[in-house]
Amino acid sequence: MDPVSPALTRPGPLVQPGPPLTGAQVSRFSRQLMLPGFGELAQRRLAAARVLVIGAGGLGSALVPYLAGSGVGTIGLADDDTVELSNLHRQVSHGVADLGRAKVDSLADTVAAIDPSCRVIRHRDRLTSANLLDLLADYDLLVDGSDNFPTRYLANDAAVLAGIPLVWGSILRFHGQAGVSWREFGPTYRDLFPVPPSPDEVLSCEQGGVLPSICALVGALMSTEVVKIVTGVGEPLLGRVITVDTLTGRSREIAYEAVADAPEITSLIDYEVFCGVRAPGDAGDDAAADGAVDGEGAGADAASARASGTPAPRGVTAAEVLARVRGGEALRLLDVREPYEASLRRIAGSELLPLGDLVAGAEPESGDAPLIVYCEQDLRSRRAARVLLERGHADVVFLVGGIDRFASVADDLVQR
């Protein structure tokens, strides 16, 4: 797939300024008003802004208080969950007294304690293809702090159709990432992740755990992007994704571009089917749309893989691959990431075949040597290995931990 450059026009302020600030507002936001390039006009834009936040959990409870503290005038909260004891170690806007309460109610109380003048609209609903676009008609910007892929793709596509920017983030274990998706000015979440991972290869926070402070780090990044987009101050994360690793204390920026031949988003689809969470035809809450995005086969592929009887692909460690390379064994290395990722670093001698192309029918170069598939970590490579096994490729494994793990043990074999 050939990339195209994002639009060259830099976005200006998203929101027209509201009424002049009162004396109390000037006092409240005085430390923000004195920031270089900010001033009263930017503060008035924030006061007029209407922001819908998906999720009142780890990311939502971290970013929403900062939106309120920054002066965002209207905040919509969309979450149908209640507060549980296991939430409290990371969802710090909720407390013991909130156990059993709706998260949107608890988080709304947190906002009211920060700034009673901030208008909070509570949507205690499960967002679907049937209701999200109607909600977005009342908002200027969407923030996705959800914890699952169907909602992430739903949020992206709804923002594209509504013509508004999307600020997104995700967290798991010690890692997090954040970015901006805005079709009018650059690439979207689908350009970064064209194909969702198979659901049996996705860890949730419940299964994999999460460090509380990563919620704060990524939530702060997301709230900052909202302020920048609304006011026009600074440079938004358009065509760039920030990744954070709390174990090493390192962050990394990955640039990406819009995909030229990506299918056009014309309406919303059934995202549980698209992501393989539910097989086509099964009962579900999402309303499927005809002819929306030519990509539902990816979800169907994941569902059929589980029912096909194909053995789960086997993983090999970075140390094992290094030993086989040092021992002179003939191996084929298949990189299933996107071209912009491979341009940053790749294992020497590997072939590039993005997962989206592979799922669409493309084949790796022929050869008799064992095939080792890798990606950035190992979510996409697991899926790719499964697809290849289903097509009859016999000796296929995936690299556990991906190029991240391999670079830690064999950095001399990684080209940059």
From TrEMBL:
GO MF terms held by the record: nucleotidyltransferase activity; sulfotransferase activity; thiosulfate-cyanide sulfurtransferase activity; ubiquitin-like modifier activating enzyme activity
Organism (species): Agromyces terreus
SUPFAM superfamilies xrefs: Activating enzymes of the ubiquitin-like proteins, Rhodanese/Cell cycle control phosphatase
GO cellular component: cytosol
Keyword Transferase on entry: yes
Highest rank taxon of the organism: Bacteria
InterPro entries: Rhodanese-like_dom, Rhodanese-like_dom_sf, ThiF/MoeB/HesA, ThiF_NAD_FAD-bd, Ubiquitin-activating_enz
Compositionally biased tracts (Low complexity): 299-312
Keywords, in A-Z order: Nucleotidyltransferase, Transferase
Listed name of the protein: Adenylyltransferase/sulfurtransferase
UniProt xrefs under Gene3D superfamilies: NAD(P)-binding Rossmann-like Domain (3.40.50.720), Rhodanese-like domain (3.40.250.10)
Region listing for Disordered, in residue ranges: 1-20, 285-312
